[in-house]
Design a protein that fits this description.
This protein is an alpha+beta fold. Helix content is 30%, strand content 29%. Helix 2 packs across helix 4, helix 5 crosses helix 6 and helix 6 packs antiparallel against helix 9. It is elongated, with a radius of gyration of 42 Å.
Length: 664
């Protein structure tokens, strides 16, 4: 918002330079963006528009900051004639127009304004029109109250001119002062005479009632309009003015009388004369009183303030202050100006004192509290480990909505969720849309959709999600932590094996070792004892693409995982290995063979790895060949070849008996 340094200087004698003023405002009051010539560009907070979006508000701030004395402009016209029948105001909607003040004046002449007034208005971004209109705008920038002047003799009516504040009806238009004609939407708040609209309330006046060189009598309008209505009308018409910007911030009703009286004094100073006044609507807001205990200031700010200093600051800011002693402590009874909507309690006054004194003056003091390191929950720690591990496989994390449509809840999985077909969906009672009707019972539908969408832009996709899934049981809604992985490739038909490998390494990274993969037709389950940790399955992606998804039970992984890895010293003795090739039925799972080999081997058996797998017609129907590498190492001595051979023979014997294996 733009202000004039020249006007501010007339309101505050001995005002420092614009540069020093900017420094003071930036430190104590507002952010000043620009200080160029006579123009002061200041950011006024939205809650301070009634009290500080005008020059006198800035004058009070400057007076408090630099310990100066501003001129007093708050003088009521005690003898202003009222109710003489020259004007009458009727408000049709008291919520949209809360107060309306009208004053009829006789003007000596209408001409050009003096050079200083033109300079002030130009600095504020307002064009000079004529002496009467300029007086209205000058009163507005001083008090913050928008005003408008009608040519009284152009209004309908004989002796009494009637002003009606109402909503527009269909077909009404207004030829405005900007030489444009506006078609008024039905319900637009207008200022009307008995025969036509005269102005768009709070925004723009009409040309046919405007003040010109031949004007002899004027009707000054000062009103208080509901802010959101003015804002909506301004947007609807594409018409923004300085007045509409001010009204949009819901100005105080108390500004009506202040602005009207100052405009009257400016016209009177130029030879004008008051003929009549009329007020309609609610009474002006009354001033409130707030008591400020100096002990409360000291408690909140951490240091005391002198009695005289506090009283002086508040008086400079425009408050009326009476000092007293109550219950043995100093108290200031503060009367708050009616237009200071931002002041309502003791803490507000403490803030006023603190910012004028300067926040830099407040002594910093370390808090005396027991400090402890930040602790994160087991769930948060586990999620971090999952992200770190899967990120190592260059997988990207996705975050999906917890809501599904009924169709998505059964997408590609026949309505089943992770662990069982007896899942009962959790339906949303009042869904905002049909695609958010059910809480997800699995992460797989959405992550499958992610694969399909990303396949449009990438040749391979590797993603994961950590989230909650929901089901309904006899006790209500059950929420579980779940981890989903998704893989898609255009050139890898064995993508499900890649998924299996990632799951294998991922579980090992969580220090989970006693698990196996169990093939159950279309799905590959991950099991640990009798617990099902998750499942892997193929999913369709795009044509020519291969996809696989994984879902793991986060709760069970948390229970089984160990955050601290166990380290064992390396053996000082060399290790050795033996490769064995076995012929097995296709129905035998390789994971089961490895598991039995590890369990049947001696302590010196430290590792069993699959080296090769082969299937072919020369092996016979339903047969396949695998090669396992058995690694042996002792912590106490070097193993002999004879000993290693005996250990290998015992393992082979167990595998023959368990799986009907044949040594090749």
């Amino acid at each position: 918002m733009k202000f004039s340094y020249s006007l501010l200087k007339t309101l505050v004698p001995n005002l420092p330079s614009a540069k020093k003023l900017a420094e003071g405002f930036n430190m104590h009051s507002f952010e000043m963006e620009e200080c160029s010539g006579d123009v002061l560009d200041i950011k006024v907070p939205a809650n301070l528009y009634s009290g500080r979006s005008h020059h006198y508000g800035l004058a009070e701030e400057a007076a408090a900051i630099f310990n100066l004395k501003p001129k007093n402009i708050y003088r009521r016209l005690i003898n202003a004639p009222e109710g003489r029948g020259l004007v009458k105001v009727e408000i049709k909607d008291g919520d949209l127009c809360r107060r309306y003040g009208a004053r009829v004046m006789e003007v000596a002449s209408v001409g050009q304004s003096d050079a200083l007034t033109k300079k002030i208005l130009k600095s504020c971004g307002i064009n000079s029109i004529n002496s009467v209109v300029d007086a209205m705008n000058l009163a507005m920038v001083i008090t913050g109250q928008p005003l408008h002047a009608f040519d009284y003799d152009k209004l309908a009516g004989n002796k009494t001119k009637k002003i009606i504040v109402r909503k527009s009806v269909r077909g009404e238009v207004l030829a405005a002062l900007d030489d444009k004609t506006y078609e008024l939407p039905v319900g637009t708040l207008v200022i009307a005479g008995e025969d036509r609209p005269l102005a768009i309330a709070g925004i723009k006046g009409g040309a046919d009632s405007g003040v010109g060189a031949k004007t002899k009598r004027i009707l000054i309008e000062a009103a208080n309009f509901e802010g959101s209505n003015i804002y909506r009308t301004s947007r609807a018409l594409g018409l923004s003015t300085d007045a509409s910007a001010r009204f949009a911030h819901d100005l105080s009703m108390a500004l009506v009388d202040l602005g009207l009286d100052l405009a009257t004094m400016l016209i009177s100073k130029a030879g004008g004369k008051v003929l009549d006044s009329f007020y309609a609507g609610r009474n002006s807001k009354k001033q409130i009183k707030v008591s400020l205990r100096l002990s409360a200031y000291a408690k909140l700010m951490g240091e005391p303030i002198e009695f005289v200093r506090a009283k002086n600051i508040l008086e400079k800011l425009g408050f009326e202050v009476r000092a007293k002693i109550s219950k043995g402590e100093g108290v200031l009874d503060v009367q708050v100006p009616a237009w200071r909507d931002d002041i309502g309690e003791e803490e507000d006054l403490i803030e006023e004192l603190a910012r004028i004194r300067g926040y830099a003056q407040v002594k910093s003091e370390s808090p005396v509290i027991a400090l402890s390191s930040h602790r994160i929950s087991d769930d948060q720690a586990f999620s971090s480990r999952v992200r770190l591990a899967l990120g190592g496989y260059l997988m990207d994390e996705v975050i999906n909505s917890s809501f599904l449509s009924e169709k998505e809840s059964g997408f590609a999985f026949g309505g089943r969720v992770m662990f069982g077909s007896d899942w009962r969906p959790v339906e949303v009672e009042n869904p905002i849309s049909s695609d958010k009707a059910i809480l997800r019972g699995s992460l797989l539908p959405k992550i499958s959709q992610n694969l399909w969408e990303n396949a449009k832009n990438f040749e391979t996709v590797s993603i994961f999600e950590i989230g909650s899934i929901f089901s309904l049981n006899k006790n209500g809604v059950d929420e579980k932590k779940s981890i989903a992985l998704g893989f898609a490739s255009k050139n890898n038909p064995k993508i499900i094996l890649e998924a299996k490998g990632v799951v294998y390494d991922f579980l090992k990274s969580l220090n989970i070792y006693d698990f196996i993969f169990v093939d159950r037709g279309e799905e590959l389950f991950v099991e640990c004892g009798r617990a099902v940790l998750g499942r892997i399955l193929s999913v369709p992606v795009a044509r020519g693409w291969h996809g696989a998804v994984v879902e793991l039970d986060g709760g069970k992984l948390i229970a089984l995982s160990s955050e601290e890895a166990e380290y064992q010293p390396l053996s000082r003795f060399p290790g050795t290995w033996r490769d064995i090739s076995l012929l097995l039925p296709h129905s035998v799972k390789i994971g089961s063979v490895i598991d039995v080999a590890q369990k049947s081997g001696p302590d010196e058996l430290v590792d069993v790895d699959l080296m090769d797998e082969y299937s072919g017609p020369n092996l016979g129907s339903g047969k396949r060949s695998i090669t396992l590498r058995l690694r042996f190492q002792s912590k106490e001595r070097t193993l002999l070849d004879e000993e290693v051979g005996q250990m290998t023979a015992r393992i082979i014997a167990v595998l023959k008996e368990k799986f009907s294996a044949e040594v090749r």
